[in-house]
Amino acid sequence: MLTTNPFQSEDDDHFREECAVFGIYGSSDAAKHGALCLHAMQHRGQEGTGLVTYDENGDQFHAHRDHGHVGEVFGDPNVMAQLTGNSAIGHNRYSTTGDTLKRNVQPLFADFEFGGLAIAHNGNLTNAGLLREELVRNGAIFQSTTDTEVIVHLMANNRGSVVDRLAATLSRIEGAYSLVCLTRKKLIGVRDPMGVRPLVLGRIGDAYIFASETVALDIVGADKVRDVEPGEVIVIDEKGLRSFFPFPTLKPRFCVFEYIYFSRPDSIVEGRSVYEARRRIGEELAREAPLEADVVVPVPDSGVPSAVGYAAESGISFEIGIVRSHYMGRTFIEPSDEIRHLGVKLKHNANRPVLEGKRVVLVDDSIVRGTTSKKIVEMVRSAGATEVHMRITSPPTTHSCFYGVDTPERDQLMAAKYTIEEMRRHIGCDSLVFISMDGLYRAMGFEGRDNDNPHYCDACFSGDYPIRIADRETPPIARQLSLLKDAS
Ligand code: SF4
What we know:
The protein is of the alpha+beta class and 488 residues long.
């Protein structure tokens, strides 16, 4: 599941956002709404994007999928003009399974006995390798290397209506996923039994919308109806909306990293403002790790709300001591060592008048390999800071994610290899404190982490994986998913 992405700078030292999904039913502007919603969720995946629409006039599906950002892929009016129809699904991709082939860009599409089916997926199936092997043994021919295509083949192997086939397929797959499916007559949204990945239902006029985050609803003026519940399947067609729960009930374990880093701060996730959650984490961190300093400086952008909270709780003044360039495109991300060295300066620059002669508290969301943190500390010191103290708004990242987030292997995670003091020395700061696990849960409104029954998935900090990772327990024999490489 772990891939090297050519668009990712080594200096961009974060867990990578997973993907975004979108679906709409009953709108005369389905494709335009889709492009706007995907644009609002660009932060969840920048490698590729796609839309599939269905047009009743002519009984035809239309698709456009490509590598690149939403603005690039859907910026051509001629492309948009061809995406006719009143229903659509869409996807922003950051590869967590499958490599960066163009044929992996979703939504995927397949012709079934009942007509066409388009499908898009945010998450990761933890038994996809085993299922794929079984399917190939039984004669299936795969066109992509994504785990989403496993769902398509399982549906093809079942009989009955699309909903029957989907329900039978869901009983075989394991993992964390939010799915949207489009047929000629139906739009379907699904969330995995533990609700690890987000999915919301919205309404605009008579049309229904599914999206990974509420910011997608905001951009088109849609209202949020509610979160799709963990384990829920929602089917929307001309008769309206109906919902069912095909899985045994499990205790939800939503991804806590959505609050710390992945989701946009202006999103409402699982009924909670992401901005507010981050601010409260910053306040809690100030209580757990107070110190004397002159300025609190966020590492932009995700560190900003937490730094606001840290500054408010500590009484130390909040300053923008690091400015981030929002215009650094892929063009700059070349794999040469020289450019890699320049990378962090292209992305972040020190605001010298704020930092010179100051004791600085730097607030960041996480440390993965430690490469960015080290360079940022060096940059802040060269701008004249007399002390640099790092405060991190997640517990140490000691484990990889297998639930749809692109992460390095464990042996590349700094916190899995070193003590906090060793990390501090390597990064070169005067002090380094991570929020405690209990502190994180307190910030989220609990007394602490209930170790017998944790409220969230926090496996990348705790190693407590709520969903078994079948592909790791019994690795599939055929590790190479495809012999073909796209030249494009
Ligand atoms: Fe989220 Fe971490 Fe769990 Fe992955 S392992 S779903 S990133 S909390």
